[in-house]
Amino acid sequence: MSKPLTVTIPHSLGPAEARRRLDEGFARMAAQFGQNAKLAKDWNGDRMGFSVSALGQTIIGHLDVLADSVRLEVALPGVLGLMAGKIRGKVETQGRLLLEKK
Predict the structure, then answer these.
(1) Digit-coded pLDDT (tens) for 53-66
(2) pTM score > 0.90 for this model?
(3) Domains of the chain
(4) 59-66 long-range CB contacts below 8 Å, 24 or more apart?
């Protein structure tokens, strides 16, 4: 049984810059995981569908880039669902850092 997780992160970048930063962040994450995980993403307009597979677990979700926020929705499988609060906190912190105006 999977547990849904939704996180909304505000930004003041505009959709194009937010999307560019999300692409860069996803590329950095893929580089950090290296061969230990399989990451895939696909843009359809302002929605990025993605999957992350590691240690026998697969997370599937999407990001919607809006004018003033990014909304993340994922389904956390199995034991990851028990860690939803901790995962939410990490996503919120890293998302704010990625999308803060510089």
Answers:
(1) 988 889 999 999 99
(2) no
(3) 3-87 (3.30.530.20)
(4) 61/5, 63/22, 65/15, 65/18, 65/19, 65/22, 66/15
